[in-house]
Structure formats: structure tokens, C-alpha cells
Amino acid sequence: MSNKQATDKGKADPAPVDPQAAARERLLAEVAALPGLPGVYRWFDAQDGLLYVGKARNLKKRVSSYLHKDHGGTRIGQMVARIARLETTVVRTEAEALLLENNLIKALAPRFNILFRDDKSYPYLKIVSHRYPSLAYFRGAVDRKHRYFGPYPNAWAVKQTIQLMQKVFRLRTCEDSVFANRSRPCLLYQIQRCSGPCVGLVSPEDYARDVRDAERFLLGDPHEVVSDLQAQMMAHAEALEFERAAALRDRIGSLSNVLHQQSVEASSFSSAEKDVDILAVKVAGGRACVNLAMVRGSRHLGDRAYFPTHVDEGAALGSRPTDEDGDDEAADPVRGPEVAVLEAFIAQHYIGQPVPPQLVTSHAVDEALLAALGEAAGVRVRAQHQPREQRRIWLEMCAKGAELALARLLAEEGSAQARTRALVDALELDVADTAQLRIECFDISHTAGEATQASCVVFENNQMQSAQYRRFNIEGVTGGDDYAAMRQVLTRRYARLAEAVAAGKAEAPEAVESAPASRKGLARLPDLVLVDGGRGQVSMAREVFQELGLDIALIAGVEKGEGRKVGLEELVFADGRPKVALGHDSAALMLVAQIRDEAHRFAITGMRARRASVRTGGSKLEDIPGVGPRKRARLLQRFGGLRGVANAGVEDLSSVEGISRDLAEEIYRVLH
Questions:
Q1: pLDDT score of 628 more than 70
Q2: Is 424 within 8 Å of 431 (Cβ atoms)?
Q3: Is pLDDT larger for residue 479 or for residue 219?
């Protein structure tokens, strides 16, 4: 044996490399190289699912705190144990970090962040610019052409305010087209809810004064408005114009009643303090409620409750696991899940939304959050959590509203869970956690075979999941053949998923959990497939599942009972099991009926829309390449509608601005 061979034989075999340990070392090295600058960080798991999004004034300190501390069996520890990689984005200021963080949270819905539904479409009261301005309910993007007041927490609050404006200031609410073509006053004038500007029953000067008084009232100066009205009333009385004085007296009385009901001393607030948002949070039973009450122009407009998801995970992490110096914030007894939920709401809700300069909160919130929010909004934002006098009353009302809303939600969820558990027990489904039960229900809808459409609705997590609903246009089958339509929709829905199951490529539960809501329905088979129909529809569904190699035990049909009476439905199974007749007062039947009715509703609404489109041809112009919204509008305006466009010749069509000869020929061909 040579010396070289002896040397090689004497060497020990290299130790095997642990992939997890290597990945951990790479992650630690990456964190060590982070800059001490503001930014946003994102944690991902091994399946590339997003776990958490956070912001930091100092990225290196914040991110290091996750990996260099022992979090034990806490939820932070559970998240840290799943971390596989990190992404960071450096920004210039903490305000930019706040914007980016919450945009990512809303767009990506991380598993461990507290999530609020992105529902910011608040209504406004609009005063339309005109010689005689009108009042209107408005929802959408505002512009500078008109004046807007709000936002209001709900449509009811806007409509109540409009009714008040009609009663006190007698401003019109009709459309400009109606206003321009009136020959006599409408009913609103007869019941003294409008001053009749359409037929000249009020001068432009008097009407403009009423508009100014209404605007001042909406801006929070009701007492000044009352004083001016009193002066006008006395002037009319001295001039012996007693009818006009009596009308002003009635206005003053109506305004006084409103001020009494609102119980607001507007004179005690500065102009900047007359717009306030009241925020109260309540956490119980693993759920949370943030109640938002709006005060605009010193008037309490009502409240609106918000219910976040991921409360347990997000509240455990809080808005930040450690402070900027690396100290564990869990040692702070003041900070709890309520503060974490409240801060998450403030950060997510006011991004891209007008924020009032004053917030009244049930718990103290981080000043840095308010500063970043104010910098992003361009206003100074202050928060008060121990108010006095009127604001204390508002906060108590808001807190009570949060408590009642959360109690109602928990009661409803408890009832929903009970119905789900009753169905699981009645059908002997192998589902341990009712929240994991997934049901997909199919229905076919048409009118005498016309515009056939199928619906698929989804029940999961003890509630209907409207984001996962699907509609299927049924083509190539005989009109009215519901069996063929059911075959087509089931094949289209499950064919690709059956291939994935057969190939062993169906997504793992972890991947399904981290998938977007719109894709979760395509990632796994349901635990139960309901078809609205009896043995015929069930037989068709069984054939489809057998052809696709899927388990026919998943299929059940909802068959009408004797006399097709509601409450006597029976479940028919594809695998030959005996029928199950659920009692008319059964919680399981209530759930089945709810899902079946939702599938029926969703199918009918889609079918009606499609039928209307087919009958009117409304979509035909939209489907022609080169005919955009402007050209389509010009065509419809020139010829008075689609029928007129269809009756027009090529020469007539080409005479419309923007319509070339070739495009006119294409339009004529499509419509004929």
C-alpha cells in the first residue's frame, strides 16, 4: 500500500450537511448584513407561503430580534420555526414603510398578520354644482367640481342627513335633467321638502342662502345658522310677512330638535376638532371587533363594526415583537391583544383614506404609528384615549357598540358551527374540525333552455365563501337538458384537479392554506359535493366522478320531498347509501337549505344577466376589436341604441367619428 493510499484511508469521512442548518446559517448571515435603515420585511416558509409582513425603523435590529431570542412555544415561536427565507425592502422614512407594509398586507394576506377586510367605500353627501345646487347620495372617487361632506359610516346616515336638509333648508334632490324639464312643482314641494326652484318659486339669491346655511350646518356651525335664521324671522315679522316668519320658525324648531338629539356643544370645539373618529376595540372568544364611530361637523353620524381575521396569531405577534432597542415588549403589561388589533386597524384603515386630525381611542396607541400616519396623510394626527365630557360619552357609546357587535358575531358563529357539526354527524363525515369542512354545491339555471348557466358555491370555515364562487356558461348542449349541463360543469370543475390527484401533485394542506382566497377552491377536493336535484342528477354526477377516477362517496343530491314542500328535502347519495331525511327543524337541514338556496340564487342572477345580454346584444359591440368605450358611446348616441346601430348600413356607420370603413364593415358583419 502506498503512502498516499494510507493517508486517504486514514482520513475520516466528511460529516453530512444538514440542509436545515445550512439554510439557517444563510438566513443569519443575510440578517447580519441588513442595514440599520427603515424598511419592510417579509418572512416566508419552505413552501414559499408568506408568513408575516412588518415594518421597522431599523431593519437590522427588528429582524434580528426574531432569530436571536428564544420565543419558546409562543405563536411567535411557531412562526419563527417555519421561517425559510426573508425579503426586505429599504425605504426612506417610516411613513413610506407604513404605506408599503399595509399595502402588502392587504394584497397578500399573510398568515400571521391581523387582517381587516379592505372595505373603504364610504358614502358621501354631495352638493352638485349648479345655479340651483342639488343634494345627492354619492359613493366613489370625489372630484373638485362638486362639494362633498363625509364620509358617512353607512348609507342610512347619508339618507337621514339628506332628509334633514330637505326638511330644514328645502334643497332639491332631483336630477338636473328632471329639473330642466319641469313645468310644475313636484310632490316634494307640496309636502314642504323643496322650495320649488325648478319653476321659479324661489329666487336664486334666497336659494343660494339656503345652500350656504346647509353647508355651514354640515361643517359644524349649527348655532350660527340658527342665529341667522332667527334674525331673518324677526325681520320678516317686523315687515308683517308673517307666513315667511312662520316658515323660518319651523326651520329653527327642526334644527333645535336635531341639535338636542345629537347632544353636542359645537361651540366648545375648534374647527379642527369638529371632525373626530372614535375607535373602540373588544377582544373575546378568539375574535375581535373594532367599532368606528364618525363625528363630522360636530354631528355624530353613527358607527360601523369591523371584524379582523388572524386575531390569535397577529395579536400574539403584535404590531412589532420587540422595540427598537431590542427589549421584549411582552414585559409591557399595558400592551395586549386589544392594542395590537387597534394599531393594525389604524394602520390598514387610514392608508389611502382621509384621516381626521383627531382620534379618540379606547386604548393608547403608539405615537410613532400616528406620526407615520400623519406624514403619509399630510396632516398632524393626534389620539386621545382618556377623553372627557362629550368625547367620553361618544367613546362609551362606541365601546358598548363594539361589545354588542362582538357578542352578536360570536352567537352567530356558534350557531353556524352547530349547524356544521350537525351536518357532519348526520352524514358521518370524516371531519374533525368543522372549520375545515368544504362543501361545493352546483345548480343549473335557464329559461326554457335559453342562456343556460351553472353555478358553483362554496361553504367553508362555517360560512359561505363568496370569493370562491364560480359561474359556468353551458355551451354545446340541447337547451333544457339539465343532465348534460350538469355533466359539463362537473367535468370542467374537477377534470384538472382529478389529473393532479392521480399524478400525486395535489397541493399539500400547507400550500392550500397559504394560497390566495381566489385559488383555494382549485387547490383541493371538497369533502362534500351537493347537486340540486334527485336521483337523475346524482347518477350523472356519479358517471362524471367515475370517469375522472374520483370518489363517488363525495356526491349527494338534494331531492325535493313529498309535494315539493320546503323542510321535507332528502339527501340522495351516489354510492348507494340509503336516503337521509333530515327533520324539518334539523340544524343540518338548515345548512343544506342555505347552501342549496345560495347556489340557486347565484345561478339565477347569472342566467338573467346572460339572458338580457343575449336578447339585447349588449355585449356584441364590446366584443368587436377596435370598438372601445368612446366609439361604442358615439355609435349608440348617433343611432339611438343597439337596434339602431344594427339597422344602420356600412356608409352610415363609417360616418361616425372614429369609425373607419373597415371597422364599419366589421361592425355590420358582427351585428348581422
A1: yes
A2: yes
A3: 219
Is 607 a member of any domain?
yes
pLDDT in tens, 396-437: 999 999 999 998 888 887 888 888 888 888 888 888 888 889
Residues in CB range of 14: below 8 A, 6 or more apart = none
Question: Amino acid letter at 279?
Answer: L
Contact 296, 275 (CB under 8 A): yes
For residues 348 and 287, state if they share a domain.
Answer: yes
Residue 3 covered by a domain: no
Could you give the residue ranges of the DSSP H alpha helices within 560-640? 587-616, 629-639
Nearest CA-CA partner of 282 in 251, 257, 303? 303
Same domain, residue pair 478 and 555: yes
pLDDT digits (tens, 9 = 90+) for 256-289: 665 554 544 444 444 446 789 999 999 888 888 9
Count of structural domains, the chain: 5
CA pair distance 276, 296, nearest whole angstrom: 7
Residue 574 domain flag:
yes
Boundary (domain end) residue, out of 220, 236, 267: 267
Q: Which residues contact 541 (CB under 8 A, 6 or more apart)?
A: 486, 490, 529, 531, 555, 557, 574
Q: Are residues 84 and 152 in the same domain?
A: no
Domain containing residue 61: 19-108
Task: Give yes or no: residues 254 and 281 share one domain.
Answer: no
pLDDT band at 459 (very low <50, low <70, confident <90, very high): very high
Task: Kindly state whether residues 599 and 518 are assigned to the same domain.
Answer: yes
User: What Å distances lie between residue 643 and 283, 620, 670, CA to CA?
Assistant: 58, 12, 13
Q: Are 385 and 339 in contact (CB under 8 A)?
A: no
- pTM of this prediction? 0.63
